[in-house]
Amino acid sequence: MRLRGGSAHHRLVTPPTLGLNLPYVEGSMDGATPRWADILAMARTAEAIGLDAVWVSDHLGFGDPDGEWHGSWESWTLLSALPGATSRVRLGTYVTAAPLRNPALLAKMAETLDEVSGGRLILGLGAGWNEPEFTAFGVPFDHRFDRFEDALRIVTSMLRTGRSDHDGAFAQARGARLQPRGPRPAGPPVMVGAAGPRMLRLTAELADEWNAGMRTPEELEPLLVALDAACAVAGRDPATLPRSAEALVRTIPAADGRPPEHRELRGTPDAIAAELRRYADLGIAHVQVQLRPNTPAAVEALAPIADALRS
Fold first, then answer.
1. Is the pLDDT score of 12 beyond 60?
2. DSSP letter string, 168-185
3. Distance CA 139, CA 3 (A)
4. Contact status, residue 241 vs residue 207, Cβ threshold 8 Å
5. Which residues pair with 265 in a beta bridge?
6. What are residue 19's phi and psi, to 5 degrees?
7. Rounded CA separation 262/90 (Å)
């Protein structure tokens, strides 16, 4: 099932569904490194409390490759382990850095994982932004938006038609075929994370869904106007492009009394639910929640917020 949504001019009458962004970076679990047992427990709890999706971000590490470095687990390997451990929740990349992988192979990976999960995959794609990880792993960072466009055209063609013939400046596919096909004739939905004019144009032309990244409702409004304008240029009804955004939510009070992080939502379950409903007022159909602390206990503490949002 794909996200329902609309533009700022097509308000939603229902609250947004919630997804959980799983921790995957060293030290990201309130100072501890998430192990597979932690990630698995959080995904299963997210499903048990009625969340709609779980998401894994796609980075190879952060910092200085020659100095302080915070490594991470590889996103597709983690995501591929989740279908057998869950039964309902959708599984998404938030978002795959397209230049890190051959695009035709990425389409094969997505189709295969959609088959393994019974049609639960959302393929999130972005251009990447963290230059040190590209440098450390020998991936070119130059012309990344050109590289992204080549990748997006190859991936969407393969998923929707089963084939790609693309002769781009940075990526090519010559009779690349997607066989066998998975459970959905047009493949899994492609969600593009985008904010700049060119990326919004490509989203309006080629994507099934759009993601804003972590934004407050106030920060979203001008982006939504720009997205609607890109849809108009592409000749697309903006109501056909479901939208999502990320929110930072604290479910367990900080023991040391630390001040809120930028964009952090705090308060009672009803108060946080009211803030999350503001996203639906702007036409946001789904909110990816990043927790503070980002721990299994914090997922359990998300349950009353999810209940309040649904009520």
1. no
2. -SS-EEEEEE--S--SST
3. 32
4. yes
5. 249
6. -125, 160
7. 28
User: Do residues 252 and 293 lie in contact, with contact meaning Cβ atoms separated by under 8 Å?
Assistant: yes
Question: What is the residue type of 20?
Answer: L
Residue 95 and residue 210 in contact, taking contact as beta carbons nearer than 8 Å: no
Query: Who's near 284: CB < 8 A, 6+ residues apart?
Result: 5, 12, 16, 212, 220, 243, 244, 245
pLDDT tens digits for range 100-115 = 999 999 999 999 999 9
Q: Tell me how far apart the alpha carbons of residues 164 and 156 are, in angstroms, rounded to a whole number.
A: 9
Whether the predicted pLDDT of 296 surpasses 60: yes
Q: What are the pLDDT digits (tens) for 194-252?
A: 999 999 999 999 999 999 999 999 999 999 999 999 999 999 999 999 999 999 999 99
By residue count, the chain amounts to 311
What is the model's pTM?
0.94
The mean pLDDT of 66-78, rounded to a whole number, is: 97
Q: Which tokens sit at 180?
A: 């066998």
Q: What's residue 146's pLDDT?
A: 98
In angstroms, the CA 76 to CA 58 distance is 8
**For position 9, what pLDDT does the model report?**
44
What contacts 67, CB < 8 A, 6 or more positions away? none
Domains of the chain: 17-310 (3.20.20.30)
Q: How many CA atoms lie within 13 A of 61 on its CB side?
A: 15
Q: Helices marked H in 118-240 — which ranges?
A: 131-136, 144-161, 197-206, 217-234
Q: What is the rounded distance in angstroms from the CA atom of residue 133 to the CA atom of residue 148?
A: 17
pLDDT in tens, 143-202: 999 999 999 999 999 999 999 999 999 999 999 999 999 999 999 999 999 999 999 999
CA distance 286 to 16: 5
Q: Which of 309, 307, 273, 262 shows the shortest CA–CA distance to 292? A: 262
